[in-house]
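#lab-general

N.A. 3:47 PM
ok so I finally got the sequence cleaned up, no stray characters, all 437 residues accounted for. can someone with queue access submit it? mine expired

B.Y. 3:52 PM
send it over

N.A. 3:53 PM
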Amino acid sequence: MPLADGATTGRALVIHPAPKSAPVRGMAETLARSIEARLEEAVGLAQAIRLYVVRAEIARITSPRPSSLLGSGAVDNFRGLISENSIGLVVVDGTLSPVQQRNLERSWQAKVIDRTGLILEIFGARARTHEGRLQVELAALSYQRSRLVRSWTHLERQRGGFGFLGGPGESQLEIDRRLIGERIARLKRELKGIKRTRALHREARRRVPYPVVALVGYTNAGKSTLFNRLTRSAVTAGDMLFATLDPTMRRFELPSGRTAILSDTVGFISDLPTHLVAAFRATLEEVTEADIVVHVRDAHHPDSEAQREDVLAVLGDLGLHETSEDGMIEVMNKLDLLEPAQRASLEYQALRNSQTAALSAATGEGCEALLGLIDRRLQSDIRAVRLDIPLTDGKILAWIYQHGEVLGRRDDSEAAHLSVRLSEADLARLRHQQRLH
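B.Y. 4:20 PM
back already:
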């Protein structure tokens, strides 16, 4: 579809549809956060792939129209705005049916994508590992198959993105359902193999005497900045949505001298497309294997509480109901951006709650307290056990002395009989090693 004269896909309009009246049943979650914050988040998503957002508007709708989502008056008003500002791309921060997308493109003479398409585009631009790119392509093809139209080939290739995304000016293509289905089947087979490899890596980590701490949180909450601070690394971190996509793991030291592994994961977001949740399940399963889950929150964000609920919902989908409610450490980040009264209140809460830490990953303030909290948590499940280890198994005996506190030992001709204090995680690793022997 040709663009209007002078329009360019680099110039974008962002529209957030919002109901005029009180929410009907089932819409309460959508309105849990402020409409203005939702619009701001949508603008951030567009800017994450370097679109120039000319205007951002809230579109009030009485009820969604099957043909265009928006009312005819709103469609006409936006047509004039798009033409006057030479806008070539419109981002609708909601879900569009293929018919609605096509009708809006024809009416506005501009490319139109919805929230799912935009997030897929971002993930395509950010994926760095082979697995990440396969996951994005699988999610994108699943989304595209339901439409059988060119959904987001309008963003320029030099902006990055996934390889199958086309450049501007291409004619709209009819995509064969059978070919997409075959490609999806191949991708699933490849990802199944990668999942088996990932499981083997997890098995290998169980044999390594290091507990795993996983950082989770809403996108742009500051996970990567905190990751860099704690591990003294240089993982990509920036004030942008989805700065991290591929999981990263590094070793870090705790105050007790103990070593642990810290894992940085992809940020969550409200209304995360189901295609992406399914595609990235194998990656997010790393969280389920962690000894401790640390939920990093942006304490400065006006919708921090709603973002928290979004993260807990995704963790619940992964089967982490107990961890997400009880065993998780909650980090209130960006303390340096708060007003003095808010800051004092958060610091007081953190002092009273052994599950919470208040800090600034950017300045480092409060990070030592977090490390101490993680250290205490890992030591809190330590218990005394009696072990009988064959004297010929010097490797396991050395491991026990390195990672446990030997309270007593008695040797006979065949075995060493030990009384040892070990954490539950280390005890599980020891039993795993013994099974392998």
